[in-house]
Amino acid sequence: MSRDAGDLLFPPEPGSGFELDPGLPEQFPEDDDGELKPLLGDDYYMRAALRCAQQAADAGEVPVGAVAVKDGLIIARSWNQVELLKDATAHAELMLIASLPQIVGDWRLDGIDVYVTKEPCAMCAGAMVNSRIRRVIFGMRDPRCGAAGTALDVTGFPGMLHHVEVSGGLLEEECKTMFQAFFRTVRDNARKKK
């Protein structure tokens, strides 16, 4: 009997021809409250955001990348597209947030986590608050313009109708290295043109 992915049960039945990857546990781990814990950690999703940031850098854009995660799955990816679209608002986070209602069927983005390589600015942090993003996890802190707790705290401002949970500094050195390399190249190219 032939089976396709639509027929799969989890876990697969013994002898079904489909076997679990031996590296995966037979059942998902649970936390103290009996809730299922994700198999993939925050580093995994931030590395996906870093790949998006590299796409931005390759296109001559400031290397900020972002991914949206719901129930452990990456449901959308984006990167800065300011130069491409000639639009100052085309930040990775806003492009991501704008795509999500079509994916989840609602403007309320409850239960969605955003991983982004650089701390969101005030515009992006405000969009996260207004769209009710559950959590933002960022890499590089921005002491000048970061609005998720470093320079400003838009995500947790008292009186807002929604607060976004924030985790900062994840893979910060890798994010910072990419950012610095990009701007070093920009400066070198500007010098060569003189």
Question: Could you name the key traits of this structure?
Answer:
5-stranded mixed β-sheet; 34% helix; alpha/beta; disordered N terminus
Give the helices and strands, then pairings.
Elements: H1 42-58, E1 65-70, E2 73-79, H2 82-85, H3 92-104, E3 112-118, H4 122-130, E4 135-140, E5 165-168, H5 172-193
Parallel strand pairs: 3-4, 4-5
Antiparallel strand pairs: 1-2, 1-3
Helix pairs in contact: 1-5
- Mean pLDDT over the residues: 86
Low-confidence stretches: 1-27
H/E series, N to C?
HEEHHEHEEH
Q: What is the CA-CA span between the terminal residues?
A: 70 Å
How many beta-strand runs? 5
Describe the structure.
- The chain is of the alpha/beta class and 194 residues long.
- The protein has five helices and five strands, in the order αββααβαββα.
- Strands 2-1-3-4-5 form a five-stranded mixed beta sheet.
- Helix 1 runs parallel beside helix 5 (172-193).
- The radius of gyration is 20 Å and the shape is globular.
- Mean pLDDT is 86; it is low at 1-27.
